[in-house]
């Protein structure tokens, strides 16, 4: 959501920012609705003042024993006109909020321009992809050969884009989530949260999942939404609150299932576990002072990178261009891990600084230590990491010629000391 006063004062800057997202000028429509809303609101207030004046006249006339019928008729007529103007103002306000809610965040000045991923910029790379003396397999072939990854039975249970994991792979999935949570809480200062997986409209709206992306979500018959990521629950922990500046930054992490309909991903990544309707992810969320959100963004990205580094996985950090960023983001780094089975780098985490975009929708503010009033916080979110994709990366990067999988040293304490996955457990 945007600051309406800023749009009034800077319509050209607003249009230039949205142009970087591929949108035509929007300020004329916004300012037209804004004018209609303010005019109706001003007239309603004028009519209220007029009614107050007439009420005083009635009192004075009654004190003098004068006839008040004409004044009373004016009051009644004014009341009806005021109600009509208030209804118009409320409708224009609703239309204005609906219009503004449909616009994506404006990219930061340091975000490269571009229409799609071809204009993204590689910021840095870490580690070298492994070399094999055999033809590497992808995670599907590896998991099925081990007898611990079952797409056929998952399809019978739930349809496409679901997986059944058994034995050592089920344990590996659990171990990865525990490993990530331990690192983020014990070393990086995040507070672990076990949040609701079902949220109201207001929560989904607050992080901008609604109204634009309703088709990407699953909804229950009671009207609650299954979270597409714990970002929704964690960020909304500060919705409608005024925080003390001294508590910032707040850093939350959660290891939860995530649910996505993948409505816009028909035909994409249909093989394997890359794109699922249900998956586990460790989420990172920061509620930051606006003057320090840039450094908080770099810190969060480094925390996500640390997981990949400790697992010994080659990856690169990519700065997304204006046309490839998420709806609520003003700046995003993607972490892309090397997958030998695809002979390519694939996204395993996105770390985004949303500025005050979500905070305005949630009405999340803080009270500065000095000065009056309140300010909107900045919100940031990132994957620390996507558990399923991390497992894919481990299977493919640590595969052996005989189909077994070496367990990275950092994970062995979480797997009872086992150093290899061989399908026998």
Biggest sheet, strands in spatial order?
A: 1-10-11-12-15-9-8-4
Approximately how much beta-strand content do the residues carry? 15-25%
In the CATH hierarchy, the architecture of the largest domain is 2-Layer Sandwich
Shape label: elongated
Could you tell me the CATH topology label of the largest domain: BirA Bifunctional Protein, domain 2
With helices defined by DSSP (H or I, 4 residues minimum), what is the helix count? Answer: 12
SSE arrangement, N to C = HHHHEHEHEHEEHEHEEEHEEEHEEEHEE
Integer-rounded radius of gyration: 27 Å
Class from secondary-structure proportions: alpha+beta
Work out the helicity level. 25-40%
Biggest sheet overview = 8 strands, mixed
End-to-end distance: 51 Å
Please specify the SSE layout and strand pairing.
Elements: H1 4-9, H2 11-19, H3 27-63, H4 69-101, E1 121-126, H5 139-145, E2 149-150, H6 151-158, E3 164-165, H7 167-186, E4 191-192, E5 198-199, H8 201-206, E6 225-226, H9 231-235, E7 242-244, E8 250-259, E9 278-288, H10 293-310, E10 315-319, E11 331-339, E12 344-353, H11 357-362, E13 365-367, E14 375-376, E15 378-386, H12 387-397, E16 405-406, E17 420-421
